[in-house]
């Protein structure tokens, strides 16, 4: 932080369900590193998790909103309100409506956090409020209670991200299923959050350069990479046998941002026919006008019971030819299983080129093919 306190800072954490937020590892790490004062979250399932696991829809999803390392007395969840204002009303018809929904949820969340924080005696020398982007940090209530202690974690490269993805969508018509664009009011909201904060945290040098393009001074930006918490056994991959098919793993949604079309170029890009592309259950496959699945690919059916870690254990190499990512935690997950990673510069700085993987240019299927075959 820019004002180092003489005592370890106490953190009042906050989160809001936005397009890409998964908040529990951050407050658990904060609680381990320094005293966590309170964690505010839209939804929490500290009790009755076994019961909710048997229920359908949003109640079952609630069981994932929990972390065993967070003391129950430090967590404030607005769970019922989240169900009423969040996923149950999330529009899907176009991007504009979806992001207006994110704005509305952020305002709703900020109002409740500000109301709870008014009762806390806050000391700018020891306390700080860490809020995720679009979590309502620009609203009046938060400005009053968090003056001079606000840090904003910007989850993605913002408008630079959208512009790059739009360019990619024009190159590959039919891949991005939801029409429309992010409304300017959403980016105006982010800009006000950055202006109010005395520190803007990003997760990669790529994001830092992108947010700086939006006018945030470099001295106000800090890069804090993400960390990966393993959920099961990890290990080292066995040496690839020349006479066996090479299993190439890809994780994520089917969209231009993740460069899905590049992974499925025609077979003449590959000199080695004996490989299998594996698309695990987290991939929500949207078929464009012509079926892109290569004969040598395996498109797995979506199955909530299968974990991505099981996919990693069966793979030989992980590919992430992303166009734009705030970090891409999947890189660390793959590495925890000993997989080499092929990625681009437009994400978190994880790969040491030529040592544990390769960094290739974006929009370059030939470079991807050459890296896979090395």
**What integer is the average pLDDT?**
75
Which structural class is indicated by helix and strand composition? alpha/beta
Largest sheet: 7 strands, parallel
CATH topology of the largest domain, by name, is Rossmann fold
List keywords for this structure.
374 residues, alpha/beta, Rossmann fold, 6-stranded parallel beta sheet, 13 helices, globular, disordered N terminus
Provide a quick synopsis of the model.
This protein has 374 residues and is of the alpha/beta class.
Task: Give your account of this protein's structure.
With 374 residues, the chain is α/β, with parallel strands linked by helices. It has 2 domains: 10-223, Rossmann fold; 246-373, Rossmann fold (3-Layer(aba) Sandwich). Helices cover 31% and strands 14% of the residues. The strands form 2 sheets. A 7-stranded parallel beta sheet has the order 3-2-1-4-5-6-7, sandwiched between helices. The chain has a 6-stranded parallel beta sheet with strand order 10-9-8-11-12-13, with helices on both faces. Strand 8, helix 10 (260-263) and strand 9 (275-279) form a beta-alpha-beta unit.
SSE layout:
Elements: E1 10-14, H1 25-33, E2 36-41, H2 49-52, H3 57-61, E3 75-77, H4 79-85, H5 95-117, E4 127-132, H6 140-145, E5 150-153, H7 159-171, H8 184-196, E6 199-202, H9 205-213, E7 221-223, E8 246-249, H10 260-263, E9 275-279, E10 297-299, H11 308-314, E11 317-320, H12 330-336, E12 341-343, E13 357-359, H13 365-373
Parallel strand pairs: 1-2, 1-4, 2-3, 4-5, 5-6, 6-7, 8-9, 8-11, 9-10, 11-12, 12-13
